[in-house]
Structures are given as structure tokens and as C-alpha cells.
């Protein structure tokens, strides 16, 4: 299992100074210059911004995606399973109607099948997103483990577990995070994302923050299951901290990276030794 971290100039500098040791950078798909820069230091792979469930896969530039995949040897095309409230104005956020869930699942499956026509189903992984509840932008059925399992079973795609997304969803909806994660389609896991959760000045939770003890507890619990063989071994575990652009630069602290990348590396190394 490889260790990755979000590419950032701070992470690059730490790698060059041999203060952190990673296998690969995780890069966004919007800048070839950034990919070139990351590649000058370490191999990198692409995390794509595709959303399955919006009916917009026919607008995707597949030539660019295939070119980036080939250039970086990115093994999987990730898609986020989404059900935005604006796409379902007639549906309550907490709907329990089977027909609503069926409609959402059908939309996501349709889009994944379209992706499969371009890259092959065996090369697709589906990522769990965040549901914040009433007044927010994501419907609850799309984070329901049964719905996500149905999507994976219908399509045959893989699964990308984002522990921060699972923690935030559980905290905001009052779920037991371990039970929630355990109910996800982990038997199909191919990639693992780990990062911290913290509240902003208004108390709103956000991810891609420094890891806290609670975040480490969940990370260690998931890795232990990988060690035990309960969960298949993902090809990569990525620390999703730091990055580029206005959304991430302000929360990219070199000292945090210098401390927490080795901590995750040790956690993964412990798994690898068993």
C-alpha cells in the first residue's frame, strides 16, 4: 500500500529536504504545470473532480482524462456519488421514500456506466461524500450504506473510502461512525483517504484540516481492519491535507505536514509488517 499526500509547495519542499518520505503525490486534474512540478520530485496520480448522479458525463473531456491517466499511470478514475438538492427540488433531504432512493441510485448508476464506456468499469472507484442535513446541499440517500452498496453491486465498480467524509456525515446526522463505516461497501475498497476535521469560526465542520486524536483513532481502526484482512488492502492511502489554490493554500502548514505525514507513514508501515 502506497502512501500519498496532497501536492503542495510545502510538501514538495519537505520531500526535497528529506523531512518526509512518501511514495506518490496526489494531484488535482486542473493544472498540467502543477502535475509537471510534482512529477519533478515524486510520481503522482490524479484525483478527478467527477460527480456521478448529475447526468453530465456527456460534457466531460475524456481525451484529457485519458491523457492524464496515461501520463501519470493513475490506476483508477474516481467519481463522487452525489445527489445535490438543486437536482432534486421535489425531494426532502431526509427522504425515506423508496422511489426517491431508487431514482438517485439509478442516476448514479447511469453516470458510472457512461464513465465505464470510456475507461472500463474495472478502473472506476466511487467515493462517499458528506451529507450535512437540513438546509444543506446533499440528500441523505446518497450517503446511505445500502444505496452505496447497491450502486457498487449494480455496476461492479470499486469503492474509495474517505474517513473524514464518513466522520463528518456521522457527526452531523447523529450516526455511530464505526457502524456507519462498517456498513459501507468496504469489500470493494481500492483507495483510502484520511484527513482531519475541525470546526471553523462559526462552528461549521470542514475537512482537509490537521488530524486530531479522534481522526487518528478512526484511521488506526480502519488500518487495523486492513491488517486483519477484514478489509482488502487499498492501492494507496492518501493524507488529504494541504494543497494549492485559494481553497487549500491557507490551510497548508509545513509544520503540520512535517509532523503528520510521518505519523501516517508509521501507521501504514505497521500494517505492512503484519
UniProtKB/TrEMBL annotation:
<dbReference type="InterPro" id="IPR007801">
    <property type="entry name" value="MbnB/TglH/ChrH"/>
</dbReference>
<dbReference type="InterPro" id="IPR036237">
    <property type="entry name" value="Xyl_isomerase-like_sf"/>
</dbReference>
<protein>
    <submittedName>
        <fullName>DUF692 family multinuclear iron-containing protein</fullName>
    </submittedName>
</protein>
<dbReference type="Pfam" id="PF05114">
    <property type="entry name" value="MbnB_TglH_ChrH"/>
</dbReference>
Amino acid at each position: 500500500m502506497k502512501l500519498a499526500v496532497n501536492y503542495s509547495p510545502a510538501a514538495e519542499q519537505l520531500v526535497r529536504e528529506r523531512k518526509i518520505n512518501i511514495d506518490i503525490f496526489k494531484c488535482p486534474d486542473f493544472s498540467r504545470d502543477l502535475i509537471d512540478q510534482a512529477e519533478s520530485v515524486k510520481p503522482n496520480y490524479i484525483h478527478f473532480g467527477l460527480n456521478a448522479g448529475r447526468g453530465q458525463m456527456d460534457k466531460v473531456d475524456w481525451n484529457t482524462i485519458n491523457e492524464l491517466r496515461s501520463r501519470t499511470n493513475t490506476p483508477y478514475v474516481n467519481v463522487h456519488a452525489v445527489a445535490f438538492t438543486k437536482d432534486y427540488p421535489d425531494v426532502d433531504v431526509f427522504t425515506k421514500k423508496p422511489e426517491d432512493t431508487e431514482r438517485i441510485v439509478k442516476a448514479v448508476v447511469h453516470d458510472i456506466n457512461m464513465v465505464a464506456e470510456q475507461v472500463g468499469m474495472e478502473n472506476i472507484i466511487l467515493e462517499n461524500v458528506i451529507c450535512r442535513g437540513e438546509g444543506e446541499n446533499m440528500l441523505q440517500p446518497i450517503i446511505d450504506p445500502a444505496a452505496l452498496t447497491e450502486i457498487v453491486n449494480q455496476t461492479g465498480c470499486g469503492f474509495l473510502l474517505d474517513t473524514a467524509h464518513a466522520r463528518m456525515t456521522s457527526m452531523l446526522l447523529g450516526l455511530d461512525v464505526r457502524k456507519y463505516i462498517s456498513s459501507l461497501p468496504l469489500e470493494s475498497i481500492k483507495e483510502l483517504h484520511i484527513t482531519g476535521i475541525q470546526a471553523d469560526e462559526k462552528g461549521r465542520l470542514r475537512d482537509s484540516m490537521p488530524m486530531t486524536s479522534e481522526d487518528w483513532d478512526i484511521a488506526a481502526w480502519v488500518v487495523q481492519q486492513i491488517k486483519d484482512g477484514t478489509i482488502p488492502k487499498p492501492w494507496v492511502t492518501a493524507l488529504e491535507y494541504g494543497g494549492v489554490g485559494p481553497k487549500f493554500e491557507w490551510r497548508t502548514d509545513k509544520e503540520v505536514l512535517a509532523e503528520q505525514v510521518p505519523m501516517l507513514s508509521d501507521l501504514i508501515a505497521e500494517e505492512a509488517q503484519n
